[in-house]
Amino acid sequence: MTMLWMIAGAIAMVAVLLVLVRLIAGPTLIDRLIASDVLLTTLILVVGAEMVISGHTRTIPLMVVLAATGILASVAVARFVTRATVSPATSDAEEGNDGR
For 30-51, how does the pLDDT look when each residue is reduced to its tens digit (9 = 90+)? Predict the structure, then answer.
């Protein structure tokens, strides 16, 4: 059982270190968003591995909350990036308005 903990911990540690490099290095906001999603997913996987190794189901609500947080944060940042990259003239043309 101890060996299983060590293997799961080593895999999670390597994943977190690689994700932190991408989170810090960037270079764009989308890269950082994807890295934070992967970090959150890794956290969910660590909680799930702990649940399997220990043989309980008490942390399922925590996993659901973490997953919901990741989804909502991704949607919010994606909407922000989309609005920031579309200029007002472009959005008027896309909506069929000619700016009058």
Answer: 888 889 999 999 999 999 988 9
